[in-house]
Amino acid sequence: MNLIIQPLDPGEMAKSKNHTAHNQSYKAHKNGIKKPKRHRQTSTKGVSVRADPSSDSRCAILFLLTPIGRSGRMDPKFLRNLRYSRKHNKKSGEVEAEE
Protein backbone atom coordinates (compact mmCIF):
# COMPACT_ATOMS: atom_id res chain seq x y z
CA MET A 1 0.00 0.00 0.00
CA ASN A 2 1.50 3.24 -1.11
CA LEU A 3 0.41 6.33 0.81
CA ILE A 4 1.40 9.63 -0.62
CA ILE A 5 1.61 12.34 2.01
CA GLN A 6 1.93 15.81 0.64
CA PRO A 7 3.29 18.50 2.93
CA LEU A 8 1.29 21.71 3.33
CA ASP A 9 2.35 24.76 1.45
CA PRO A 10 4.11 27.24 3.74
CA GLY A 11 1.28 29.80 3.29
CA GLU A 12 -1.52 27.30 3.92
CA MET A 13 -2.63 26.39 7.44
CA ALA A 14 -4.59 23.39 8.62
CA LYS A 15 -8.33 23.90 9.00
CA SER A 16 -9.70 23.94 12.52
CA LYS A 17 -13.15 23.38 13.98
CA ASN A 18 -15.01 26.61 14.70
CA HIS A 19 -17.75 25.51 17.09
CA THR A 20 -19.32 22.48 18.71
CA ALA A 21 -22.14 22.03 21.21
CA HIS A 22 -20.72 18.73 22.42
CA ASN A 23 -21.25 18.15 26.18
CA GLN A 24 -22.98 21.52 26.72
CA SER A 25 -26.46 20.00 27.08
CA TYR A 26 -25.12 17.43 29.55
CA LYS A 27 -23.49 20.15 31.64
CA ALA A 28 -26.68 22.26 31.61
CA HIS A 29 -28.87 19.38 32.78
CA LYS A 30 -26.40 18.10 35.38
CA ASN A 31 -27.84 20.39 38.08
CA GLY A 32 -31.16 20.81 36.31
CA ILE A 33 -32.42 23.68 34.22
CA LYS A 34 -34.51 25.85 36.52
CA LYS A 35 -36.95 28.64 35.75
CA PRO A 36 -35.98 32.05 37.13
CA LYS A 37 -37.67 32.91 40.41
CA ARG A 38 -40.68 35.19 40.07
CA HIS A 39 -41.17 37.75 42.81
CA ARG A 40 -44.57 38.94 43.94
CA GLN A 41 -43.71 42.60 43.42
CA THR A 42 -41.06 44.00 41.13
CA SER A 43 -38.07 45.78 42.56
CA THR A 44 -38.38 49.51 43.16
CA LYS A 45 -34.70 50.11 42.50
CA GLY A 46 -34.21 53.09 40.22
CA VAL A 47 -37.66 54.51 40.98
CA SER A 48 -38.25 57.55 43.14
CA VAL A 49 -41.75 58.42 44.30
CA ARG A 50 -42.07 61.96 45.63
CA ALA A 51 -44.43 64.91 45.68
CA ASP A 52 -44.21 67.41 42.85
CA PRO A 53 -45.19 70.90 44.12
CA SER A 54 -45.83 72.23 40.61
CA SER A 55 -48.70 69.80 39.99
CA ASP A 56 -51.12 70.65 42.82
CA SER A 57 -49.11 68.59 45.33
CA ARG A 58 -49.93 65.45 43.39
CA CYS A 59 -47.15 62.91 43.32
CA ALA A 60 -44.94 62.48 40.30
CA ILE A 61 -42.99 59.36 39.50
CA LEU A 62 -39.41 59.84 38.43
CA PHE A 63 -37.62 57.03 36.67
CA LEU A 64 -33.99 57.60 37.53
CA LEU A 65 -31.59 54.88 36.48
CA THR A 66 -32.96 51.90 34.65
CA PRO A 67 -36.25 50.84 33.11
CA ILE A 68 -38.02 48.14 35.07
CA GLY A 69 -39.73 45.16 33.54
CA ARG A 70 -40.36 44.48 29.87
CA SER A 71 -42.40 47.61 29.27
CA GLY A 72 -39.80 49.81 30.98
CA ARG A 73 -42.34 50.99 33.58
CA MET A 74 -43.53 49.77 36.94
CA ASP A 75 -47.19 49.11 37.54
CA PRO A 76 -48.77 52.52 38.31
CA LYS A 77 -51.37 50.95 40.62
CA PHE A 78 -48.60 49.37 42.70
CA LEU A 79 -46.65 52.65 42.85
CA ARG A 80 -49.73 54.61 43.93
CA ASN A 81 -50.35 52.16 46.76
CA LEU A 82 -46.66 52.28 47.70
CA ARG A 83 -46.81 56.07 47.88
CA TYR A 84 -49.86 56.03 50.21
CA SER A 85 -48.40 53.33 52.44
CA ARG A 86 -45.16 55.29 52.87
CA LYS A 87 -47.13 58.46 53.60
CA HIS A 88 -49.29 56.83 56.27
CA ASN A 89 -46.36 55.00 57.85
CA LYS A 90 -44.81 58.38 58.58
CA LYS A 91 -48.07 59.70 60.10
CA SER A 92 -48.55 56.69 62.39
CA GLY A 93 -44.95 57.05 63.62
CA GLU A 94 -45.55 60.67 64.63
CA VAL A 95 -48.67 59.79 66.66
CA GLU A 96 -46.84 57.09 68.62
CA ALA A 97 -43.97 59.48 69.36
CA GLU A 98 -46.36 62.06 70.88
CA GLU A 99 -48.05 59.56 73.21
Automatic annotation (TrEMBL):
GO biological process: cytoplasmic translation
Phylogenetic classification of the source organism: Eukaryota, Viridiplantae, Streptophyta, Embryophyta, Tracheophyta
Any GO MF annotation of the entry: structural constituent of ribosome
Protein name, as recorded: 60S ribosomal protein L29
Gene3D superfamilies, sorted: 6.10.140.1730
GO cellular component: cytosolic large ribosomal subunit
Domain of life: Eukaryota
Biased amino acid composition, Basic residues: 27-42
